[in-house]
Write a structure and sequence with these properties.
Radius of gyration of chain A: 19 Å
Order of helices and strands of chain B: EHEHHEEHEHEHEEEHHHEEEH
Radius of gyration of chain B: 18 Å
Number of strands of chain A: 12
Strand order of the largest sheet of chain B: 3-2-1-4-5-6
Distance between the termini of chain B: 34 Å
Structural class of chain B: alpha/beta
Strand content of chain B: 15-25%
Number of strands of chain B: 12
Strand content of chain A: 15-25%
Helix content of chain A: 40-55%
Shape of chain A: globular
Number of helices of chain A: 9
Helix content of chain B: 40-55%
Largest sheet of chain A: 6 strands, parallel
Oligomer: heterodimer
């Protein structure tokens, strides 16, 4: 049986574990520093096995040694921003958590594919890549799948069609500067522009950019985890099944789209060994300009990372 | 209203029932005039229920009366193609049976949505609307939605992808004259022509064009029924769960693309009650001309009359 480890037993991690266990493709290990928490959630899951019909093992642990020989490691650990905390403090804390995780991943699961979920995503992915010293193909960030599934849902809701028939790509950094590609959005293959006026499309694009924020505003404390957990599981499935799935995700770029040395959301193929290919699609001048802007925002984060001396 | 009825329990009807049981939770009645046949097949499927965890009941019946009150009626009766024969030639064999079923459905399940699978599907969908008096939005032919499923599969195969994120649009008649729309065919939203050359696309479209023939030729005694059954089950699921799927189905055209009076496939939104909306794709002059020519052929077939 293959093995997936999910680091962080918070809501995102636990929801990802739920979806991954339901695939019935791999045993799942949930790791968290909080004593008892991953054990409790894993036990609760196992109790649902007779009803939900999954046959894989789900265990909780506080010991990184239990991730040994994992095929996939999903990194969700990190703190959420609290009121009054500045982004820099958040970044320092989460980069520290990511460094520890990365060292343990390199030690115990040296052949794994790492899926980064913790925010700020594009910077955490870079920290994981540098600290694990993994080849670039084996560290991939979960951003585009989540931003795209939100965009797809908003389109389906507006047109009153089945969400599964809607395809869309969101590229760029995982933040307000993300780039929803309206020309690549389609419903059953029909381009979005033939089904909706520009004003409506613009409104859905704006809502997608603020998709995470909209949920934070409702929840007051806490952030989204159902769609993020499902998105992490979707990527895990692509690796476990060797799908070569064509999805948008954050990858370490070395010249593609004209960017170098940053993680940025791009269309890629994800399969058994991680990223198999980065796909360069045609962009309009406006889309390219928006992607440039997004890349600049991510570069700022990488500079901060360098000041924290990660992997240096 | 309750349940789905499938008229005809040959390979196409039985596999449609099987895929519905696997993917939906709606009761299915298989109807076949051949005594005991549908009951035997339904029983066989129900005996797999403990393993496959079906959330529905399947049963068989010998009389058409069993379709009474159905929410969806699938028409899967009739002769299938033999190697070397074309679909249109089946009209003479199947028209009388389908016309009778149309009148029975109008009487027994007057509020149902109908899925016509019998070949030639576009001509028989046209005939079904005429004979049942149903509004055109409640009679859907399993036309290009099948060609489009096949195109998705060959595109996915060619690009080494799972077909999940591949959409492919085929419109027009379910025959050699089907019209594939490459720019309306996408992989995770990326138009197919960005990922494949025009020559490669043409080769795949030709493969789909003759896919049905290929299966008839290879299988010898039967025509295809796995993909048709799977696609019919998707349509049933879209209707009973009001999913509002976007799929190219055959329906009687009423001015779309300037065509009226015969059924051809166009993309449509399918949910409870059948077709909620027809979506007209933008066609170039050549594609449009091919659709108009197909329409004339379908009309001619539909008016040719069946064997007495």
């Amino acid at each position: 049986m293959r093995k997936v480890s999910v680091i962080g037993a918070g809501n995102v991690g636990a929801t990802a574990v739920y979806h991954i266990a339901r695939l019935d493709l791999a045993d799942v290990v949930m790791v968290d520093v909080v004593e008892g928490l991953p054990q409790a959630k894993a036990l609760d899951f196992r109790h649902s096995a007779p009803l939900r019909g999954f046959g894989v093992e789900v265990i909780g642990t506080n010991d990184y040694a239990d991730i040994k020989d994992s095929d996939v490691v999903v990194m969700t650990a990190g703190i959420a921003r609290k009121p009054g905390m500045d982004r820099m403090d958040l970044l320092k804390t989460n980069v520290g958590i990511a460094k520890t995780a990365a060292q343990n991943i390199a030690k115990y699961a040296p052949d794994s594919v790492v899926i980064a979920v913790t925010n700020p995503l594009d910077v955490i992915a870079m920290a994981l890549l540098r600290e694990t010293k993994f080849p670039w193909e084996r560290v991939v960030g979960m951003a585009g799948v989540l931003d795209s599934t939100r965009f797809r849902y908003f389109i389906a809701e507006a047109l009153d069609v089945w969400p599964g028939d809607v395809e869309a790509m969101v590229l760029g950094g995982h933040g307000d500067s993300m780039v929803p590609l309206t020309s690549y959005a389609s419903v059953g293959g029909i381009p979005l522009a033939e089904l909706m006026d520009k004003e409506t499309i613009d409104r859905l694009v704006a809502r997608t950019r603020k998709g995470g924020g909209e949920i934070v505003n409702y929840l007051k404390s806490g952030s989204a985890y159902y769609a993020p957990g499902a998105s992490a599981a979707r990527m895990t499935q692509a690796v476990l099944r060797g799908e070569s799935a064509l999805i948008p995700a954050s990858a370490h770029l070395t010249g593609q789209y004209g960017y170098e040395g940053i993680f940025l959301g791009v269309p890629l193929r994800l399969g058994a060994g991680g990223i198999e290919e980065i796909i360069e699609v045609e962009l309009s001048p406006e889309e390219k300009a928006a992607l440039d802007k997004s890349a600049e925002a991510v570069k700022g984060g990488v500079k901060t990372l360098e000041s924290l001396q990660v992997g240096g | 209203m309750a349940g789905v009825s499938i008229v005809g329990s040959g390979n196409v009807g039985a596999n449609t029932a099987f895929f519905i049981a696997e993917t939906c939770t709606v009761d299915v009645t298989l109807v076949d005039a051949s005594e005991g046949r549908s009951t035997g097949k339904a029983l066989d499927m129900m005996e797999a229920a403990p393993l496959r965890k079906y959330g529905a009941q399947l049963k068989g019946a010998d009389s058409i009366d069993a379709i009474e009150g159905s929410e969806v009626v699938v028409v899967a009766v009739g002769a299938v193609r033999k190697a070397g024969s074309d679909r249109a030639s089946l009209f003479a064999d199947n028209a009388q049976d389908v016309a009778q079923i149309a009148r029975d459905v109008a009487r027994l399940a007057p509020q149902s949505v109908v899925i016509v699978m019998t070949e030639p599907v576009d001509a028989l969908t046209t005939l079904f609307v005429q004979e049942s008096g149903f509004p055109r939005t409640r009679v859907l032919g399993l036309g290009a939605v099948l060609d489009s499923a096949r195109l998705r599969q060959v595109v996915a195969r060619e690009l080494s992808l799972s077909s999940e994120n591949v959409s492919a649009m085929v419109v027009g008649t379910h025959s050699e004259e089907m019209v594939a729309l490459p720019t309306y065919s996408r992989i995770s939203g990326i138009p197919l022509p960005q990922l494949m050359s025009a020559a490669e696309i043409d080769r795949l479209v030709d493969e789909v064009r003759s896919a049905g023939d290929e299966i008839v030729r290879l299988a010898g005694r039967t025509s295809s029924y796995y993909a048709p059954g799977a696609v019919a089950a998707e349509l049933v699921n879209a209707i009973v769960n009001d999913l509002k799927r976007v799929m190219p189905v055959s329906l009687l055209l009423d001015g779309e693309l300037g065509i009226s009076g015969c059924a051809l496939s166009l993309p449509a939104i399918v949910g409870r009650g059948g077709v909620a909306k027809v979506l007209e794709p933008k066609l170039d002059a050549d594609q449009k001309q091919r659709l108009v020519a197909s329409a004339e052929k379908v009309k001619a077939t539909a008016q040719s009359g069946g064997k007495k």
